[in-house]
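sorry for the late reply, my laptop died twice this morning and i had to redo everyting from scratch. anyway the thing you sent over, i finally got around to it. pasting the sequence first so we're on the same page, its 708 residues, then the predicted structure underneath. double check i copied it right bc i was rushing
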Amino acid sequence: MSEYLRSKNSASQDQAAAMNVDLQCVKNNTEHHTNEITEERLIVRRGQAFSLILSAERLDHNDIEITAATGPGACEQKGTLSSCSTVTQRCSSIGKRWSVRVLNSSPSAVTLSVLCPSDACIGLYSLSVRSGSCSNVNTLTVLFNPWCRDDWVFLPSEAERQEFVMNEQGIVYKGVDEYITNISWDFGQFEEDILDICLKLLDVNPKCLKDAPEDYSARCNPIYVSRVVSAMINSDDDKGVLMGQWDGTFIGGTLPSNWSSSVDILRQWIKYDCHPVKFGQCWVFAAVMCTVLRCLGIPCRVVTNFESAHDTDHNLVVDEYFGDYGVRPKRNKDSVWNYHVWVEGWMKRPDLSQDSFYDGWQVLDPTPQERNSGTYCCGPAPVKAVLEGHTDVKYEVPFVFGEVNADKITWLVMANGSKQKILSDTKTVGQKISTKAVGSDSRQDITDQYKHPEGSAKERAVYSEAVKRVTGLKESQTPLRPNIQMKVSLDGAPLNGGDISLKLLLKSDSSKAQLLTLKMSAQVMRYTGNPAADVWSHTADLQLQPNTEQTLPFTLPFTAYGPKLLDNNCIKVSVIGTDKSDPNAVYLAEKDVVPHSPTLSVTVSGTPLQDSEMTAEVIFLNPLPLPLRNCSIMLTGSGLLKQTEQSNTVELGPGKRITLRVTFKPYKVGPKKLVANFNSCTFKDIKASVDINVRPATLRLGFLSFSR
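ok and here's the structure:
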């Protein structure tokens, strides 16, 4: 609680005894969709009335005054203080006006209806009530209101409100565009302490520390609040929640793939006095931001963009480089990530247009990639602006447009330092943009909300418009199709722990035979598109006959890739073909390979009733003929487990199993999810989940539904 609210409460303790105020927490919180947080204190949503019952020996219902104040230096001019009364003349005439009316009364009790305006600042308030010589001071918390038509975050569909505001569990998509994996995530935005942590996050943001009255005043605006949250999830400029780490060194912290709950991260941040939690990567940053926005009342969903470009020089082109020995340099300035995860928040954008054109989903990216106005933050960027190539619109639209629709140019770097353009690709960047579907665990493809069909006249026209608005230049011409096409494909499902069979398909459109030198290589990749280790290479000559297709099979041994594989399980297989008679004729084929990991088993037993005992069992079996070191299992789930449970770390022999068995009592009613995570030195980031529909203790019928 702020010093302002403490002083108000302290000063009113003597008078408070003269009047009792029933905050009707159960009734009000239920009506305001906040009872999942708590029923012990008043939490309301703006633009919606709530009721109070006043009782005292003598009450004058014609002379009741209510004052609501938030933040230090609260004042009417900044919209952080408002007084309302049953006597109209005593109500605030400026700022964000609250209102009150009498519903019914008796000589010793009055029931009031208090309306918090739809543009009120969100946060913790003191609520002072006075009637004659009687007074009382309480506190309440005000949140954004997606149910209120006049709130900028109003979301018309109830099904979408249940998904994007009320759902405490979700799914995050990872992997590569040809092999998308999903992980269950525990957002836990209604765990009771999470709201206070989210408000603390706002209070320690640099803008608040510099000018608290101005910052509190701006908290009426979801555009401002969401941009602040975007900056505060990462710790690069401030006392943010998460420290990013991408170089593979995670000493002194938690491997990003080990996280499966925002609650654990936020609690650790507040426990250690707002010091950053180690470590996060893009999906962790996004999932935590989703928790914070949903908690504050801004509808939010997690979005994954596959083949996501990072355009550092903001020209909507990414340049990638290969050495003439067939592998990528260790780091490119530009890069194409296997995937990148951000969030979308739902809100109006009257700051951009008066015709609602840019209203709706807005991209917000808390992963620290580029500084904007000196701060690592991104958004809100209207998805509609990205779709139409309006790259001159706030905020950071060019960066987001590049992520989903940049052109990619591939260069071959010779031993003498010279470079040769070998491929220009207008279609690869921005694939299968994905989010969890409303009301189910299926994947929804929302690529068409970000860009028009690849290769269509409309898509290229939008790209040209985006380039013109960013650089003032015209789009460069697409090169002619080469007379040899190469493609790498899998020959069967790749299994982590076994050799991987692949094949190279070559197709010639030439009228003459060509002798090619093929430089084949495999690199273990970070998901950010940068190589972590070279694991295999092979060179061969091949005679390609005119106007024919030819297939060349090859194998990537587990002994080559297994010891170097990272937690994202991604391998980049590349083939560079050079015409021996024409060294300038160079051809390229690439393939992202994700070996499939073994499965994790999760089962539950017991009747799914609130406060009734249940048991969860998580089992992993080592499928390899070798021992697995540093094996452990974690289990989490809001509404089910009060804290994350973890097994001991063990070595697991061939064919042996590790088991985590947890007894628990569900403490919240409704659809809940247990999320399990297995990690070892060899197999990392193996997750599974089970759905549990918890019923009130008075009901004795029902069943469990399981989800993997």
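The chain has 15 helices and 39 strands.
thats about all i looked at so far, will dig more tmrw
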